[in-house]
Structure formats: C-alpha cells, structure tokens
Amino acid sequence: MTAGAVIMFYPFWFMIDASFKSTAQFRGAEGHSLESWAKLFDILPVGQQLLNSTIVCVFALAIIVAVSTSAGFAFAKLRYRAATLVFLLIISAMLIPMQSIIIPAYVNLAQLNLLASYTGAILIYAALGTPFATFLMTAFYRGIPDELIEAAVIDGLGYWRVFLRVALPLSVPAIGTVVVLQFIQIWGDLLIGLLFLQNTDLRTITVGLGVLATGRLTDIPVLMAGSLLSAIPAIIVYLVFQRQLISGLTAGMGK
Amino acid sequence: MGILLSLPAFVLVVALLGIPILQAVYYSMTNWDGLTTVWVGPETYVNLFLNPTFWRVLLNNGLLLLSVPFAIVIPLGIAAVLHEHVLGWRIFRVIYFLPTAISWVVIGMVSARFFAQEGLLNAILANVGLGAIQTDFLAHENTALFAVAVTFVWSMVGTNTIIFLTGMATLDPSLHEAARMDGAGPLRVFLSITTPQLKPFIQFAFIMSMITAFTALFSLIFVMTGGGPGYGTTTLEFFVYQTAFSRGAFGTGALLGVVLFVIMGIVGLLQLKLLRSRE
C-alpha cells in the first residue's frame, strides 16, 4: 500500500521539488531557490491566464447549471408531451466525442466571429457538459416526491416559482456534484481552449502551459512550477468536495 | 411550461453538438479546407479504409486498449485492501485519488520527464542492473506508446479504485463472514465472493476506461509525444486534430471524427445492453 502510495504521489513530489530549484540546482547542484517561479511569472502571463480560466469556468458552469436544472425539473416533474423524446435526444449527445464535432463547430463559430472572445469556448464547454448534467439532475428530481411539488402548487405557487423556491434549493447537493465534475473537466481541458481561444490574451492557464511545453522551452523547473500552479485550484476543489466528486463519478452507473 | 424550461438545454445541445455532428457526416464526404467544399461522395470512406496510415493509427488505439485490464485489476486490488480499513486508509484514499483532479497536461508534463533519457525510470533501470534496456522511451515508436499506456493506467487507478470502493460498500458482509467461517482465506473470499458481486462495477469501470482511452487522451499525447515519433502514439482522436488543424484537411478530419463517433456509439450500445441485462 505504501509503495503504491509512493508511486501515486511521486509526480506531485517531483513537481514541488523541481519547481523550487534553479536549472543548475535541478541538474545536481545543492539547495532550493525561487528562481524558477520568478522565471515562470516572467515568461507566462500567469495572473491573466488564471483569470481567463476562472472566467471561462464560471460562465460555462453557470450555463450548465441553469439549463440542466430547469430541463431536469421539466423532464422529471412536468412530463409534457414529447418530454421523453427531448430527454433522450439530449442524453444521447453524451455519446458524441468532442473530437467528432470540433471541426464543424470550429468553422461555425469562426463564421459567427466568436473565436476572438471567450464566448465560443464558453458555449462549447457548456454544450459538452449539458447532456450528463441534465441526466444527473433529471435522476435527482425524479427522487423528489410528487406530493411535495403538488402541495406547493396547491398553495398557489406557479411551476416556475415551485422550481425556484422548492426544487432548486433541494437540489444543491446534486448541483454540487455537477459543478465539481465539470470544473475539473473544463479547468484541465486543452483541446477546446487551444482552438476556440485563438487570441493569446484569452488563453487559459492549461492552454498556456500546454503550448509552453511543446515550444522551445526546455527549462524543466519552470515547467514544473507552471504545472503545479495550474493544478492547485483543481486540487483544492478536489480536497474540499471529495464526496461530490465521488458521487459524480459513479452516477453514470444508473443505479 | 415544461417545454419552456427544457428549451435552453435542448437548443444548446442541438446547436452545438447535434447540428455539428450532422455537418461532420456531410463534410466527411467532401474535400474541405474550411472555406471551399468539393463534393466527393461516400468513396471517401473507401479511400480511408484503404489508407495504411489509418490502420496504423487504429492499431495504436487497439494496443492502448490492451492496457485497460491493468487499469481494472490494479485498482481492484487496491480497493480490496482499502476496504479492510488498513492503518491510514483515509490518507491512502486521498493520495490514490489525487490524479483524478489533475489535468492530462500536467500529468503528461511530469510523465515526459519520468520516461526521458535522463529521467527517473532510466536511473532505476541502471540501479537494478537493467542498464542495458535504458533508452529515451519517448524517442522510439514502441516504447513511446508503452509510456503513454503506463501513464494512462497510472491516472486511471484513482478513479477506478473509487468506483470499486463504492461497489464494495454496497455488498452484503454476511456472505463474506459465512465464507470465512467455512475456512476460506482472504484471497479466496476476494476471488470467489467479492469479485463476482462487483461485476456491474467492473463492467462500468471497463467501459469508462475504454471511453477515456479513445476520447480523453488528446492533451496527454499532445504534451508527451505530439503523436510521434512518426505515427507511434497517434491515436484516432489525435489524428482528427492533426489532420484538420495541422494539415488543413478539414474534410478528412471530419471523416475521422465520424469514425470515432461510430466506434463510441458501439461502446455506448454495449453499456446500454449491460445496464438492461442487470435490470
């Protein structure tokens, strides 16, 4: 078990250790320094890229939560005609790999002039996250007793208010699962960011790092400092919301 | 009201996933550079299937699939031990699960150093007297794919361990006790009692790992090897990107995307069938 834990933890240790060494120290000289961290902040607009990652994540997550909770509520509790069909259409989009749609989506959004802003990337992330989120939210709302909803309706609340005041507050744990799972996905994504955030100023930290790694820079400690920095927000989210993440990973089992 | 509430999700999915996938099917039968389109017809598929590079790439996907059993068996063992609540199991769980939160870019970055000429793996090999097989793992076709596969398995360990731990928590402990009373050792109990009961969880982990191997390794390959050397680590998903955005062959890229979609569709049907058979 301990040997396994060492193997699992070694990359993190390597990142931390290497990032606090200068290039010479990494090559064998003694001691640690902040030289590589200083260099990282020189060559990468770290603050801007962290901000870009945050903006993209927040807006994409807001869209995913808004559309998946309302749709989930409609599918589970309002059961209009054709609801099953619409539900199945949305859910089946889970099967579409992002690589299969990325070329037409890229050309479509380029024609709409959305590649020079955050908008294109945000929309694509939102669309890719929505099917699974809707699946999860629908399953969650199906678990809420119908009587609860009906009682609120009899009390004179319209469906819209029932959704906002009764269903939505009840579904905070499920929303948590959706948010944590999608945050980790979007924060760590490279492909969409690479293509849909064409402007260098708009790049997320993961894209900035990915581009750096394939470029001429071979300064390992600097790359490790960047890796660590980009990983920290996701690690914090993971440590705080472990339970939500776990329930999200097994939610696809369909119980 | 119901229609209104589900409309935003529907529009988003149709506009950004549904229509593009139909467009991809259309463009897959054309010569397309992103601006001008020349209709070719279904023979683009025939041409693709006659192209040896396509099969070379698909072979990489196939070889990568061979690593999936390792991504199942290792976590199964770990989960079995953690489930017994060995000393420090909570800390172990946090550490084993950590890679799940980390982007493939970061994982690839560290992994590339590990497999490099002056990396840790070669240092270990030299220390245990296997200096003869020291090499720059990412510089040769076969070893580079091996390095990608090992990294893939490493990062799946956490996710699959969690799936199995969740599964083990649902099992009925009385069966285990009965088996132990009958004199079965821990290994015997694990193989004959635990594993069969975990079947749905194992199937689920297997399919999720397969989907990951086929559709989620773009960033890892981009950072670790760039698909090379040669086509050594180019998988189908990476080939889509390369064909469209490095070579400008958008039509062929769309075609490869459709092939990937069909393969994933088959995997999805398999999953659906497994779910049904359980109910």
CATH fold annotation of chain A: MetI-like fold
Q: What is the β-strand count of chain A?
A: 0
Termini separation of chain A: 30 Å
Derived from helix and strand composition plus strand pairing, the structural class of chain A reads: mainly alpha
> How many separate helices of chain A?
14
User: Mean of the pLDDT scores of chain A?
Assistant: 88
Please tell me what the overall shape of chain B is. Answer: globular
Which CATH-level-2 architecture of the domain at 67-252 in chain B? Orthogonal Bundle
- The portion of residues assigned to helices of chain A is over 70%
What would CATH call the homologous superfamily of the domain at 67-252 in chain B? MetI-like
Give the strand order, joined by hyphens, for the main sheet of chain B. 1-2
Identify the CATH class of chain A. Answer: Mainly Alpha
* Helical coverage of chain B, percent range: over 70%
Determine the strand fraction of chain A and express it as a percent band.
Answer: under 5%
String of helices and strands of chain A: HHHHHHHHHHHHHH
